[in-house]
């Protein structure tokens, strides 16, 4: 117990240690997170009337971010699968960063669901009337919280073993790793089923939604990890090989191609059949009855997707500079396409034929920025702690030796 408490104290101490760039970054994130908390307090007092959501469009920016982040959390599996299933040792030293990302992102997902409730105390109603296994919402609660606990255990055990200077016992983490692989796929599949199962929203009633969710997740997640590893390699002594980055590049490349193919299939099905359920898709891509708020956004996303895929296919992206450009374009494009481009059009027009557009308010945007800042703050702290611990620069033996001298 004494050793474990020492480990916790070292983690807390490390989170405050860094150069001026680290402190500036953490200060900015803290200020934005506090501003988001202030905006949420205002929403908590006055209700969801402070947001742009209405009776017609009851899901907006909060659920859009939630949907995107669930996919980002599943990205940890794209590091775990090559290492533990295919024995790809290039990613062995960086797999912890995917697991840590999953922890931070799932926390953000839970926060976005909380702020979307309006009254968080209503969550207790879900716990009292769990309605398992009939309700897809209860499946989502189990999937998200279970995935969070799995990754917390894996990351905590690996870091604590490194701090103690002993080799991790496979019995205590490898079974959880394989469960987490299946769980990573399930969290996004269950989220997709949550939308697909709503018969009153024809825009979501497609069997291709779940595979498309997974393809976009396995593109955006590894792309985000590529950018993280570049920062780690530049500003720390942690070894990140080019082979690891190129392996992640190939994963993003294949996932982007599949995502574009599935998007093309969905667009063809919607517009070629010219069914009565085409209105939502027409609103998204071309506008409807003079309302076209999302049109420039979705075409920007498609352009970014095409450029990112082209860069990944061409040999030019083997250079880190172009790889970073492709990664940023993929992350932004999938956020637009899978967030606002998926959630809002399902509500426009309404089942009664009303065309009511949704525009997020300043308070709503500030809450979202605050949650993103808090998530990045958590992930930065996790990476800041894990790098010296895994490198052996911070350990119980070193601290014990210093105390003895």
Q: Work out the radius of gyration.
A: 22 Å
Low-confidence stretches: none
The CATH architecture category equals Up-down Bundle
Shape: globular
Count of alpha/pi helices: 16
Main structural class: mainly alpha
CATH homology group:
Formate dehydrogenase/DMSO reductase domain
The CATH class assignment is: Mainly Alpha
Mind sketching the topology for me?
Blueprint: H1 2-14, H2 20-46, H3 61-73, H4 77-85, H5 95-117, H6 123-128, H7 136-164, H8 170-196, H9 209-235, H10 242-273, H11 279-285, H12 295-313, H13 320-338, H14 340-343, H15 362-391, H16 396-404
Helix pairs in contact: 2-15, 3-5, 3-8, 3-9, 4-8, 5-7, 5-15, 7-8, 7-15, 8-9, 9-10, 9-13, 10-12, 12-13
Explain what the structure shows:
The protein has a single domain, classed as Formate dehydrogenase/DMSO reductase domain (Formate dehydrogenase/DMSO reductase fold), CATH 1.20.1630. Helix content is 73%, strand content 0%. It has helices spanning 2-14, 20-46, 61-73, 77-85, 95-117, 123-128, 136-164, 170-196, 209-235, 242-273, 279-285, 295-313, 320-338, 340-343, 362-391, 396-404. The relative contact order is 0.16.
What's a concise summary of this model?
The protein is mainly α and 405 residues long. It contains 16 helices and no strands.
What labels describe this entry?
405 residues, mainly alpha, Formate dehydrogenase/DMSO reductase fold, 16 helices, 0% strand, globular
């Amino acid at each position: 117990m004494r050793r474990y408490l020492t480990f916790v104290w070292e983690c807390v101490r490390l989170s405050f240690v860094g150069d001026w760039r680290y402190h500036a970054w953490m200060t900015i994130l803290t200020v934005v997170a506090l501003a988001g908390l202030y905006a949420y307090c205002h929403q908590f007092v006055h209700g969801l009337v402070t947001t742009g959501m209405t009776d017609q469009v009851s899901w907006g920016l909060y659920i859009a971010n939630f949907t995107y982040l669930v996919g980002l959390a599943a990205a940890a599996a794209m590091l775990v699968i090559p290492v533990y299933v295919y024995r790809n040792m290039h990613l062995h030293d960086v797999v912890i960063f995917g697991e840590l990302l999953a922890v931070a992102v799932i926390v953000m997902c839970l926060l976005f669901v909380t702020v979307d409730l309006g009254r968080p105390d209503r969550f207790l109603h879900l716990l009292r009337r769990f309605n398992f296994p009939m309700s897809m919402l209860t499946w989502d609660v189990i999937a998200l919280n279970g995935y969070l606990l799995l990754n917390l255990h894996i990351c905590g055990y690996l870091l604590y073993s490194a701090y103690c200077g002993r080799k991790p016992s496979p019995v205590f983490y490898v079974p959880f790793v394989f469960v987490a692989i299946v769980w990573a796929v399930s969290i996004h599949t269950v989220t997709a089923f949550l939308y697909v199962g709503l018969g009153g929203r024809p825009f979501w009633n497609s069997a291709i939604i779940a595979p498309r969710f997974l393809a976009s997740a396995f593109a955006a997640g590894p792309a985000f990890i590529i950018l993280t590893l570049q920062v780690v390699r530049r500003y720390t002594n942690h070894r990140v090989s080019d082979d690891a980055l190129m392996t992640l590049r190939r994963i993003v490349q294949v996932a982007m191609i599949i995502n574009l193919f599935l998007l093309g299939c969905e667009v063809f099905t919607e517009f070629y059949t010219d069914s009565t359920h085409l209105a939502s898709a027409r609103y998204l891509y071309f506008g409807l009855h003079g309302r076209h708020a999302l049109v420039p956004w979705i075409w920007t996303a498609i352009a970014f997707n095409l450029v990112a895929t082209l860069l990944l296919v061409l040999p030019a992206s083997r250079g880190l500079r172009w790889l970073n450009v492709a990664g940023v374009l993929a992350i932004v494009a999938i956020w637009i396409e899978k967030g606002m481009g998926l959630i809002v059009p399902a509500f426009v027009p309404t089942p009664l034929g009303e065309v009511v557009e949704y525009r997020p308010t300043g308070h709503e945007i500030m809450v979202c920025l605050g949650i993103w800042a808090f998530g990045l703050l958590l992930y930065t702290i996790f990476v800041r702690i894990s790098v010296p611990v895994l490198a052996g620069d911070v350990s119980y033996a070193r601290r014990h030796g210093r105390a003895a001298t």
